[in-house]
Amino acid sequence: MRNVIMRKLRGNNLILLMILSLGMGLVSCGNSDTERQGSITDNVSQKAGTVQLYHATDSSVEPDEARYQLKQPDNQSAALEEVIEAMTLDPMVTIERYSLEEDKEVTLYIRYDKEITEEIKLLNDAAIVKSIENLDFTTIYVITLGEDDRELETATYTDSSFYYYNE
């Protein structure tokens, strides 16, 4: 009789231990889901095949936390077009067109509003360059267009042109 009672107690303790373990596991699963969601966003930018998009604020260039663009390694033109379309630019900045060169260079033809300040213009250029530099372009040319599509100014940027804005 004593053995039967001890077995029942051991069985109940085993069940109690299993219930406690399961409960602790569920609680920790809830925490890891939240942690995992935060780390997914961090990991997406580190994965090969994605491009971190940037945008200009009033005083800096910030990564767009919620948005990434997938690369298309077989079609650089399409990948560039998708990145340009996905970017958030200042309303005073418009990328009119672009051209690609065989030696990993891209030329962007950009129209700026008359009222844009040099600082906002530079910050938007930095956001554009930082967004598309992960498509493996070596040099980015930005040609400023006037009202009559006349080329007013040409700037040349590389991956180190905006070192000040790097994280």
Describe this protein's structure:
It is a single chain. This protein is an alpha+beta fold and 167 residues long. 43% of the residues lie in helices and 28% in strands. It contains three helices and six strands. It has helices at residues 2-46, 76-86, 118-132, and strands spanning 50-56, 61-70, 93-100, 105-112, 139-145, 151-157. It has a four-stranded mixed sheet with strand order 3-4-5-6, with helices on one face. It has a two-stranded antiparallel sheet with strand order 1-2. The chain starts with a helix and ends in a 10-residue tail after the last strand.
Stretches where pLDDT is under 50 for at least 5 consecutive residues are 2-6, 31-39
Structural class: alpha+beta
Euclidean distance between termini CA atoms:
72 Å
Strand content: 25-35%
Task: Report the sheet with the most strands, covering strand number, pairing sense and barrel closure.
Answer: 4 strands, mixed
Lateral arrangement of strands in the main beta sheet: 3-4-5-6
Helix content: 40-55%
Quickly count the helices.
3
Please give the structural blueprint.
Blueprint: H1 2-46, E1 50-56, E2 61-70, H2 76-86, E3 93-100, E4 105-112, H3 118-132, E5 139-145, E6 151-157
Parallel strand pairs: 4-5
Antiparallel strand pairs: 1-2, 3-4, 5-6
